[in-house]
Please model this.
Amino acid sequence: MNMDLRADLLALLPELTLTAGALVVLLAGVGGGGRRHGGLAVTALASVGLTAIALKIAVDVSEAGRLFFSGMFVLDPFAVFFKVLFLLTAALAPLLSRDYLERHDYRPGEYHSLVLFATVGMMVMASGTNLASIYVGLELMALSTYVLAGYFRREVKSHEAASKYFVLGALSSGVLVYGLSLLFGELGSLDLAAMAAALGGAERTPTLLTGMALLACGFLFKVAAVPFHMWTPDVYEGAPTPITAFLSVGPKAAAFAIFLRVFLGGLEGLTPYWVWLVGGSAALTMIWGNLAALTQDNVKRMLAYSSIAHAGYALLGLLAGSELGVQSVLFYMLVYLVSNLGAFGFVILLESRGYAGETVADYAGLARRQPLAAFGMLVFLLSLGGIPPTAGFMGKLYVFAAAVNAGFVWLVVVAVVMSAVSLYYYLRIAMQMYLREGQEGEGAEVLAAPWTARAIGVCGVFVGIIGVYPAPFAAAARTTAALIGVTLP
Amino acid sequence: MAEYIPILVFTAVAFSFPIITILISKAIRAGRFDPVKAEPYECGIVPASEAFDTRFSIRYYLIAVLFVVFDVETVFLYPWAVMFKKLELFGFIEMLVFLGILVAAYIYAWRRGALKWV
Amino acid sequence: MLHDTLLSTLILTPGAVGLVVLLLLPRQADSAARWLGLLASLATLALAALAWSRFDPANPGFQLVEQRPWLPQVGISYSLGMDGIALVLVLLTALLQPLVFISSWISISQHVKGFIASMLLLETGVLGAFLATDLFLFYVFWELMLIPMYFIIGVWGGERRIYAAVKFVLFTLAGSLLMLVGILYLAYLHHAQFGVWSFAYGDMLRLNIPMGAGFWGSPQLLLFAAFALAFAIKVPVWPLHTWLPDAHVEAPTGGSIILAGILLKLGTFGLMRYNRPLFPEAWEAATPLFMVLAVVAIIYGALVAWAQKDIKKLVAYSSVSHMGFIILGLFAGTVASTQGALIQMINHGLSTGALFMLVGVIYDRRHTRLIEDFGGLAKVMPLYTFAFLLATLSSIGLPGLNGFVGEFLILTGAFAEHPLAVALAATGIVLGAIYMLSLVQRVFWNALVHEENRNLTDLTWREALAFAPLALFMVWIGVQPGTFLRLSEAAVRHLIGG
Model:
């Protein structure tokens, strides 16, 4: 018992560290310290850094392949990969937000602390091996992000975003829990390994399949796949831009983590049933996400639809299901993270039309006024569009290769055609920046925001390196892919 | 499926109970209408405003939320106390973590002025 | 030392300099950017010449091979190699690039830095696509060309440039992404048949790609279609050519030269390098279709060109017609016709490149390209007239100039198997002579009716310098085609035989 306790707590060390960090930021942010933007951002960054160290320690001392907290929690390479991803997001978020919060004059304490709490939730999700612990992590993440979406309480759009996000998020959580309870009823356990074992002999009753379908719907909602995407554009448009950036990568990656672990780990036996559900949704997501993005004039809304579309591409890897498939999703998440955060970074930098009012036309003539900024944005847009030699292309390559290998050629054809469509709206911005002149006094100026610029720089370096030499990153994703009880071909 | 039949019966009973009681009361009551009867009951005083216009201080909500937070704490402490021997050190540390977070929340609420009633 | 990395150096030199120009030069350093661009392209030309000197024409395989693992897990490697087919196209590319810089020295005055950088990055993409021997690497370079060209048309183009740029990108991208699916499927087949992932060109040749039944049930036909569509859009094969007139008319002179001279060749090069050896049965099956399309393109392109009022549009449609000849030569499939197609690719690059350059010269002076705005220029601009006439004669295939060699080889090579197609194509030559010579007649010989044309300056020494190398090669190939035919003969024989 004593030994167990030590091991359990050590395995949880990163989450505990980050929780402590979040509490410190929260308490330091009240009273007189409420406006110390720099100090609080640094504190948040420092706690992410400490958490990274704690993660290293936890991985080093923990026995490989061991389950903690009575089988609720695991620290396998898969979980570690996602935790690193989340920590990267959590480290970039304060950088992106710092100048923005000061400019809009909102309290940084609660803000950074909620971001860190959401990250704790995501980390728990990545490690959960029991639907109960996964759900707890999910709710911690979700509740924190609901508040963050509405953090700019003087903005009506932010209110709207928060209330929509909350109502629909709560609904999806309800659907998810309902599916989970049906599965529990049929299989007698919420533990993924036990569920997989019970599935072996279980009859495919309607209840079981309904439970599986509801669970899938809940997850599809969280990754913002069509037809469960309706909340995304409004929330992404209305939320403070750094939070939109955070929402579009962190929670999405976390949702993919549990999607992979539950559907390839616990419910792999039901693959013939969910493959149509998820496959159909992936196709719709890619088609609708890209087509809807075409008509958007608001940059944030456009990027929201683009993020819907990207979830569709990543679903291909889940469908493929093989080791390559899992690897491709992990790699895609990394690529998408750096590309999308970079693009949103520029949206933050260029915000000049009041709250969430940036239109594509605001980018007119940017190349002439701010060549470096325009070039940077171009790189991120090309990466999102999947043009070599950027990271986005490599991400797509792996996902497509996995799907072709698994026999989903038709889905890859859809994905490829839709990628071509997507380039149209990404290049719309490029066109504004480079091809249009922009009248005097029109268009956005780059705001002085050194912290945001640093975050963009980090993303840019990643996009470049992954685009030219992706091998080490892909290898990292690969070593983690064998984890979740995926049966290898 | 047989084991679900009791649940079905239970659901049917649960749904039919309010419907049947309403129907019974409708059947046996004396149906005399009076405008005064249609007014909301406010301790015999004439209603001051429309229901939707009534304003409450935001602090009621704040207090309610704080109550829920600390109420949950108590609910969680009871079973822990009962099982304390069995949970040993593990339970103790878990509870310390839990209380630590709660105390931080308490300090936060305090310093933000949630406990002050201006 | 350089021998091991010669091809890499060749490919990366322009791109690296391009990035330097783009990122490191100060904003107003136009002159420095021009000189850097010219020097980089001349260095590339020198490297290409060096590669030529080290090339062994007797060896049909890839030479100066480089190979490094890139994404070993999925069998992707950075591998380059040059055979005779690639060599002549590389030489053409390296030759045209500095001429483009010289000819747009003054006419490009806005965003000079960006223009130079785009051109150099484009050159890297083109050279890489010619020299890649890994399908994935080929695709990367192929896509790399897209964005610079988008900007070249979109930033420095004419009035409807944005429409033309977007149309160009969407057409090209639609085709190339389907090719990506095809490439992935080939790699998957390799995995299924040999147990390992590979994208290497050599490995792909060993694949057994089933023909199956029907079109949708035949992997080989589907793969052929996926590749052929991408290449056919690039060529462009009728009826996929509609992007070409828009792109050409709107593009700046330099962009048109590169587009017509080099980018179109990537389509025919792709058909040669990938479609024929990888999918031989499907190639066989598709031959009648492509023969018909080629003949239609030849005649349709010629007729439409005849009807044009804008000189540049006329030259653009003549490209459709000329590329039809190349397709005809490729699909006729004999050594002579394929050699002819290859040399015709070079010819078209030289003569159409020259024509676009010369149209640019007159446009710079008059800011119009309508035929009716000219007439009688021969008296005012004798040197210019001579240059234009030379390029015209080369384009219509006058014996003694380069165009004749290519057309003659194609038609004789194809005649035995496809007499009807050759007969119809020959009418295209006649039509070509008619519309080109009538153009010359109307622009240069008729009476000088527009007063503003009376004081036009003749070719400047800079413009003449840009034209001279093209003229040299037109005559060289026309008189002594063996120099160039010899380079590719072994590779072409290997292609036809294998």
In short: Residues 2-481 of chain A form one domain.
